[in-house]
């Protein structure tokens, strides 16, 4: 009995030994499996990186070149913001100014002298629209990623522009105006201990004659986009004329009513709406209706009058907004008319107050970017942008960037057009 018990104990020892070996084998196999999985994961990651790199290569004239453009991730109906940012990033003089600025530095506590990189966890005191805008522009043309997430910039937008809080669709034109206005206001203050006016004066490309003051001192915003309108109002009763000069950053143009039923370029016979039709409608003499009676200082009461706009000073970058959204009794409808626009040589001389004082080429503009709204209403649909960079046209659709051609750009139903002043030819070339 005792021997039998010993035998069973030895059997248990043997069984325990076998179980230990089995466990070790299992652990070894698990380690091998984990190692293989890790190796496979690294291999897949490398393949993805290579495919991402290959996707940013394109063929031009038979040779392979890098696609340096970077998309912007959609954070939830933020295509309106992405389209405007991509357009502004391709206005070289404007973009380069911000990219060359020094980073913001904190000047209090333990973080004094360090660069700040704003995140959603930081307080309101660290919010800087200029800094986040600068970092976004820097990221867009580095060429080391297919898409950049503008979360920090969007956070700042939420902080300082309450109208754009939330994730509903917004009007790209309204966002552009808010963005430029707030950049202008922040630039008027100091930034990183250096006055913006001092930085602007040191920029040789922005001469004093090109500055247009809006709400105070001039900044790069007004130096690039700023123009001046002359508003003439004439009383139809006594003939008194009133003149007023108004600065502008963009011009909002009506699509003439006779063209509003035309939807596509080839849908109907008859004349096609052109950008020149819209500009002519904006600058033509207009009789104000009963709801817009002019207060005549000579008649001492509101009278019927006429109004006419002249452009007293053209900007370096002419931003033209086509008014595609109109309020009806209950809805804001979209005018889906195709408007033909030139890609090169937009001549603005005939809209100037004193065209004889302008040079032969100072009124010519070339297209650099187009914002397009796809869909039926301002609160829905989708925004994309076309932009020219180093002689090539790109289509920016949130995180996707594709190479396109001038013919495709010309067929777009433009919502916002950005034209850059054509540089004057050197004296040697004129001879």
Automatic annotation (TrEMBL):
One GO MF term: cysteine-type deubiquitinase activity
Entry EC number(s): 3.4.19.12
Catalytic activity: Thiol-dependent hydrolysis of ester, thioester, amide, peptide and isopeptide bonds formed by the C-terminal Gly of ubiquitin (a 76-residue protein attached to proteins as an intracellular targeting signal)
Gene3D superfamilies: Cysteine proteinases
Entry GO terms, CC: nucleus
Keywords on record: Hydrolase, Protease, Thiol protease, Ubl conjugation pathway
SUPFAM superfamilies to which the protein is assigned, alphabetical: Cysteine proteinases
Domain annotation USP: ranges: 70-422
InterPro entries: Papain-like_cys_pep_sf (IPR038765), Peptidase_C19_UCH (IPR001394), Ub_carboxyl-term_hydrolase (IPR050185), USP (IPR028889), USP_CS (IPR018200)
Superkingdom of this protein's organism: Eukaryota
GO biological process assignments: protein deubiquitination; proteolysis
Alphabetized Pfam families for the sequence: UCH (PF00443)
Family the entry assigns: Belongs to the peptidase C19 family.
Name assigned to this protein: Ubiquitin carboxyl-terminal hydrolase
Organism: Ficedula albicollis (Collared flycatcher)
Taxon lineage: Eukaryota, Metazoa, Chordata, Craniata, Vertebrata
Gene coding for it: USP3
